[in-house]
Amino acid sequence: MLKIPEVNTPREFNLHGLRGISDQTMAMHLTLYQGYVTATNELIEHLWAFLKDGTVDHEGMPAYSELTRRLGFERNGMVLHEQYFGNLMQGGSDRPGRHSLFAKAAENSYGSVDLWKTDFCRVGMLRGVGWAVCSLNPATRRLSNHWISLHEHGHVAGFIPILVMDVWEHAYLLDYKPSERGVYIESFFSNIHWKTVDERLDTAVPAYAGSVPR
Ligand SMILES: [Fe+2]
Fold first, then answer.
1. Do 48 and 151 belong to one domain?
2. pLDDT digit string (tens) for 3-54?
């Protein structure tokens, strides 16, 4: 028997008063995020309608295929925005604490937090529309930075996003020129909620604090 399809609810984020990212940008961005939630729910509902007869027939396959591909775009757009908003806060800081889990993991993976940040920022400067994501490989406990095109191309299966930065132009066009993405990236860094980042590490691998390889 077919169950009720998944329904996602937009999450609330209090992101007023960030440094270098205006309230106007955040209000627009949160509205855009809600659109991804709506589109994700609609696509899931459409796809479930195909299944209600117990199969997808030959005639239905082109629409079923296209909707399934679009769901990858919309659902990743929804989730990445939640992770992005979730790792920002008013009163954030541009560096993790010296003894934080993230600092230890970055040092283990890159040799230093500075080199990790250099790599992450350069990934964020790649030409095109997408995201810079620092992910954890739970098998090795190492961090690595990745470029995600659009919302769905470039994820490594099984890797867990730890820090997520939106570099679509809508993330900064109200505050900066298109050529000033680097300034926006520095603004992003000045607002990072490192406690959330550490919690993601801890959740990704239970007892992470004791398992960072040396
Ligand atoms: Fe965005």
1. no
2. 778 899 999 999 999 999 999 999 999 999 999 999 999 999 999 999 888 8
Say yes or no: 140 and 189 in one domain.
Answer: yes
- Please tell me the distance between residue 106's alpha carbon and the centre of ligand 1 in angstroms: 25
Of the residues 54, 89, 124, which one is the last residue of a structural domain?
A: 89
The pLDDT tens digits for 149-167 are 999 999 999 999 999 999 9
Cα 129 to averaged position of ligand 1 atoms, centre (Å) = 10
Cβ count within 10 A of residue 18: 19
pLDDT 10s digits, 126-137: 999 999 999 999
What mean pLDDT value characterizes the chain?
A: 94
Residues 85 and 120 in one domain: no
DSSP 153: B
CA of 134 to the centre of ligand 1 (A): 17
CB 189 within 8 A of CB 86: no
Spacing, Cα 76 to ligand 1 middle (Å):
11
For residues 30-47, b (16+ Cβ closer than 10 Å) or e, as one string? beebeebbebbbebbebb
